[in-house]
Amino acid sequence: MSTNYTQGYSKATTSSHAARTIHSDAAFVLPLIDPADRILDVGCGPGTITTGFATIVPQGEVVGIDISDEVLATARSSVPAGLSNIFFQRANLLEGLPFLDDNFSVVFSSQVFPHLATAEMRTAALKEMRRVTRPGGLVATREVAEMLFYPRASSLNELLTGNMNKVLRAGQKDGWFPGGEMPALFRQLGFKPDEINVGAGTTVHSGEEGRRAFGAGYGARLSRSDPYYESWKRVGISDEEIDRTVEALNVWMGDPDAWCVVLQAEVWGRVRH
Amino acid sequence: MSTNYTQGYSKATTSSHAARTIHSDAAFVLPLIDPADRILDVGCGPGTITTGFATIVPQGEVVGIDISDEVLATARSSVPAGLSNIFFQRANLLEGLPFLDDNFSVVFSSQVFPHLATAEMRTAALKEMRRVTRPGGLVATREVAEMLFYPRASSLNELLTGNMNKVLRAGQKDGWFPGGEMPALFRQLGFKPDEINVGAGTTVHSGEEGRRAFGAGYGARLSRSDPYYESWKRVGISDEEIDRTVEALNVWMGDPDAWCVVLQAEVWGRVRH
């Protein structure tokens, strides 16, 4: 996964990750959590969701894993004093998780699958998540299905969304975000259709401030010095097209009618006894 | 509007409307409602949302308007006994509402704007909604922005979504649902950008039963005897393409990995004092 995590860990990337909380990004699993649950947060990044989980399982514990030592250091340093049921550990989902079978009652991921470029990687990842979930437990994923810019005619729907998909699919032109196909992946791994629950959430970027935060974040990632810019170059997107994308971001940020919605597939499966 | 309400009032159409509640379709405005509010529900259909509003404004009242006497009769007969602060009235938004200026504290619509084919109609409609809202009050709209079928390769994204948009835009090929453009419409009518709040909700159709209910509903609407079928024929969609759409619906309904999400733009504007 290290070689596939294409967007890198610049401040422009990780600061957008740090805004995530259990309420913004894990609300769909909260009603299913028991105070004694043992939760695995896969691809925990700076750990804001992980920490939130720890506060709602006072009799349980939470393990956050990520492939980046640097990000894990940030996560560890952000844990509020007195929260002792939270652990962070370096691990690579694709190389196998360092946990026994049936180890967790809830295994959660948010925005991990877009970074797994092939169907084989995505299958291996979900299989590993399922392996460490105990019977009766829950595998839950919140993964982006669409990124839609309005006004609908905004060129960002091609320039940013289209190119992001291309990058995440290692250069394939007609790739797309994985959210919509997550229910199929669950079923392929042996979850019965009636054990799979499919919902959808949204993340909205609107208003002058909201647009500026979101747009400037992508603008910074696409600047020449950012590893995210390099990930675009690697799949053959030209500087000229990158410049057009940044320009379209600026137009969008300045348009009082503009907004963006990221559609999130919220899928969970119950592991059979 | 009567001439523009293209999909007609067959049972296949109105039964899908009757599943709507304030919790499924108006959750985004509920935190803003005061028990003494006077609410107008524009295009109330069978009145399930209207009735829900009435239960949360015990010191206020709710008026539901629609252009169809038949649907209003259903709405009136569905009001629970003892709920006396609810009224239904026939009215046509495009011909002018039979209310004085500044009459309501909340004016709400759900799925009204897709049935207004032109920008002029949509502007006139929102202007009229704003006119009857008192200063300090709220104009709130929940209008579809996208209808997305998964697996993403599903031909329904062209056959059903594409043709629906064509019908709703009176035959224009590159039309789309109005949700994404609602913030622009609010601003054009004089709401300041910081008086407009933009969010997004979803309606998901998944699981065998959920797919069957949704798919069979559209299948029935597209049967030769339904006014909805006639609305497709009127804009030149061939029987052959309609048959292909119904066939694609059947394939989708039978696919255990398939699901659909309707993305809803949830926009409200505060009318200035």
Task: Give the proportion of residues in helices of chain A.
Answer: 25-40%
Order of helical and strand elements of chain A: HHEHEHEEHEHHHEHHHE
Measured distance between first and last alpha carbons of chain A = 30 Å
Q: How much of the polypeptide of chain A forms β-strand, as a percent range?
A: 15-25%
The first-level CATH class name of chain A: Alpha Beta
Please, how many domains of chain A? Answer: 1
Strand numbers in spatial order across the main sheet of chain A: 3-2-1-4-5-7-6
Described by the principal axes of the CA atoms, the overall outline of chain A is globular
Largest sheet of chain A: 7 strands, mixed
User: In DSSP terms, counting alpha (H) and pi (I) runs of 4 or more, how many helices of chain A?
Assistant: 11
Structure notes:
- The structure is a homodimer.
- With about 270 residues, chain A is α/β, with parallel strands linked by helices.
- The model of chain A has no long low-confidence stretch (mean pLDDT about 95).
- Chain A has one domain (about 10-270): 3-Layer(aba) Sandwich (Rossmann fold), CATH 3.40.50.150.
- A seven-stranded mixed sheet of chain A has the order 3-2-1-4-5-7-6.
- In chain A, helix 4 (about 70-75) links the parallel strand 2 (about 60-65) and strand 3 (about 85-90).
- In chain A, helix 9 (about 205-220) packs antiparallel against helix 11 (about 240-255).
- In chain A, about 35% of the residues lie in helices and about 25% in strands.
- Chain A has eleven helices and seven strands.
- The first copy, chain A, has helices at about 10-15, 20-25, 50-55, 70-75, 120-130, 155-160, 160-170, 180-190, 205-220, 225-235, 240-255, and strands spanning about 40, 60-65, 85-90, 105-110, 135-150, 195-205, 260-270.
- The longest helix of chain A has 16 residues, at about 240-255.
- The interface of A and B includes residues 145, 151, 183 and 200 of A.
- Chains A, B: One of its GO terms (molecular function) is methyltransferase activity.
- Chains A, B: InterPro entries: Methyltransf_25, SAM-dependent_MTases_sf.
- Chains A, B: Belongs to the methyltransferase superfamily. LaeA methyltransferase family.
- Chains A, B: This is Methyltransferase domain-containing protein.
